Each structure stands twice: as C-alpha cells, then as structure tokens.
Amino acid sequence: MSIKRSYFFIFALILTIFTSCRKEIDTVAVVNVVDINTLVQPGLTVRMFGEASTDNQGEVQEIAIDRVQTTDSNGKAEFNFTEDFELGQAGFAVLNVEVTVGDSIYETIMKVEAEETTEETIIVN
Predict the structure, then answer these.
(1) Distance between CA 23 and CA 15 in Å, rounded?
(2) Which of 25, 29, 51, 69 could form a disulfide with 77 if both were Cys (CB 3.0 to 4.6 A apart)?
(3) What CATH number does the domain containing 64 carry?
(4) How far is CA 106 from CA 33, 39, 45, in A?
(5) Does 100 reside within a domain?
(6) Is 86 part of any domain?
(7) pLDDT, tens only, 1-37
(8) Would you say 70 and 88 are in contact if contact means Cβ atoms under 8 Å apart?
(9) DSSP string of the chain?
C-alpha cells in the first residue's frame, strides 16, 4: 500500500471515529402558560401529542408521542423527547399542544426542533 493511501485510510478512520462518537444533545419542548395579563398559570394540564399520518404507500403511520405534564409554579411544562429522537434523523416533530383550564381547552401546534430546547407561550383566559 502506498504512503498516500495509508495516510488517507488513517484520516478516514479517525474521521469516522470522531463523527460516530458524537453525543446526542437533549431535545426538549417547554410550554409556558400565562393569562392575558401575562401572569403565570401553575397547576394546569398540558398535553403534547402527534397525529397519525399516511405514508407514500397509503399505510397509516401512528405517532407514539402523547405526553401530559402539569405546569409548575412558573407556569411551565417541560417535555423531554431525547429518547424519541435518533441521531441522523432529519428534524424531530410537529406536535399538537392542548392546555386545559377548567372546561376550556386552548390549542396550538408546536414545531419541536431536534437537539434544541424549543419554547412556546400559550395565553389563556
């Protein structure tokens, strides 16, 4: 084997080792709930979930994400989706968000970014 080929092989091996050992960064969604006066709303139920979709072959693809949290004393509900994300995956998910206040439900859609902390604020009455 020539010297150039040996250096190229070693370089390729080192590059492969370093890129395959990359540690995954947390994928987190934070939902902030405030009222129309921007006062935080603790103790409310927040649900984040996906909806089933249809793939190119017409088969229904179920989404396994359906989580519920209660807002803390700062009006925040934090969802950690790190275990649901796989390195190399393009993007993460667009999820429905529901906040329950008594008999009312406030809804929005949130794009959760892979390996980032994504925040959304929902204003309730």
Answers:
(1) 15
(2) 69
(3) 2.60.40.1120
(4) 10, 16, 11
(5) yes
(6) yes
(7) 566 666 666 766 665 655 555 577 899 999 999 999 9
(8) no
(9) --HHHHHHHHHHHHHHHHHHTPPPPP-EEEEEEEETT--B-TT-EEEEE---EE-TTS-EE----EEEEE--TTSEEEEE-GGG--TT-S--EEEEEEEEETTEEEEEEEEEPTTSEEEEEEEE-
What pTM did the predictor assign?
A: 0.74
Q: Do 75 and 41 form a contact (C-beta atoms < 8 A)? A: yes
pLDDT digits 0-9 by tens, 70-92: 999 999 999 999 888 776 666 68
Q: Residue 48 in contact with residue 122, Cβ under 8 Å?
A: no
